[in-house]
Amino acid sequence: MSLLVAPDDRRRVATLLGGEDESLRLEPLLSNDIWMRDAGPISVVDGAGQTVFLDGNFNGWGKRFAHELDALLPLLLARRWQQRRQRLSLCLEGGAIEVNGAGLAVTTTPVLTHPNRDNPPVARIEAELERWLGVKQLVWLPHGLSMDHTDGHVDNLVRFVARQRLVCAVAGRDHPDHDRLAENKALLSETLGPDVELTDLPAPNIRSNGRGWLPASYANFYIAPGLVLVPTFGHNTDQKALAVLEGLMPQHRVVGLDARPALEHGGSLHCMIQPLHGAVDLENLQP
């Protein structure tokens, strides 16, 4: 595992984590923020079996936030680790696309077609995703979480836990996005039919002191080999969400981590982590 740290913090972080070894490498590199899923390169494997770092032209989620350092991460990491880098012909954040590794993907219209991304027409977006991610069918969800400053990333909405199985965020009537999430699920069900199983994942209602609703989502989990890290929020739906994921991925240890500090800054666990070498075989997640 590689952990990006500010150069001046490397020694302090190494001490806190018990030092570096073959399982942990600290990479001193300046960045604007911690959201590596969006700013970092998307790692794919080409036909020759070589890793390629895709550069998604990160622009601070539509130039909302400083990103001059984050935008350089794919280039700098490719050079540092001697990997091939390919710049995409669209603005694509890692949290904006969810793929099953077998040609099916889900995204949201409010992100990839937002004017602040300066993206090409839909047909060209789909062609680029097919070329570099092998996407044969792309499902466009109409809504993201209304409080999400990314304009509505899909990794807060639906996630593959197997090639033909999705978890789908749903909410109670007291949630501000109840109707939006219900519409997303209905579209998925209609588009994908019985070939893809949908499982409900509760959406918690989390407020910030003085800032209203926050984009809290259990769908922002991260799957690692043998382990699933799930954000928790000190909410009464935490245990239900963990139980749902435990039932779907029995071969993995499901661990809840308090994500409230990260949530206050607008993201969660999946947003902070970007796998760069290899991939999780979703086929093996099935019970």
Molecular structure report:
The chain is α/β, with parallel strands linked by helices and 287 residues long. The protein has helices at residues 10-16, 36-39, 60-63, 73-80, 109-112, 122-133, 178-192, 238-248, 260-263, 269-272, and strands at residues 2-5, 25-28, 42-45, 51-55, 84-87, 98-99, 104-108, 137-141, 158-162, 165-170, 197-202, 207-208, 212-213, 222-224, 227-232, 253-258. The chain folds into two domains: 1-30, no CATH class; 31-276, 5-stranded Propeller (L-arginine/glycine Amidinotransferase, Chain A). The chain is built from ten helices and 16 strands. The strands form six sheets. Strands 3-4-5 form a three-stranded mixed beta sheet, covered by helices on one side. Strand 9 (158-162) and strand 10 (165-170) form a beta hairpin. The two termini are 27 Å apart.
Please sum up the structure shown:
The chain is an alpha/beta fold and 287 residues long.
Topology:
Elements: E1 2-5, H1 10-16, E2 25-28, H2 36-39, E3 42-45, E4 51-55, H3 60-63, H4 73-80, E5 84-87, E6 98-99, E7 104-108, H5 109-112, H6 122-133, E8 137-141, E9 158-162, E10 165-170, H7 178-192, E11 197-202, E12 207-208, E13 212-213, E14 222-224, E15 227-232, H8 238-248, E16 253-258, H9 260-263, H10 269-272
Parallel strand pairs: 1-2, 4-5, 7-8, 10-11, 15-16
Antiparallel strand pairs: 3-4, 6-7, 9-10, 12-13, 14-15
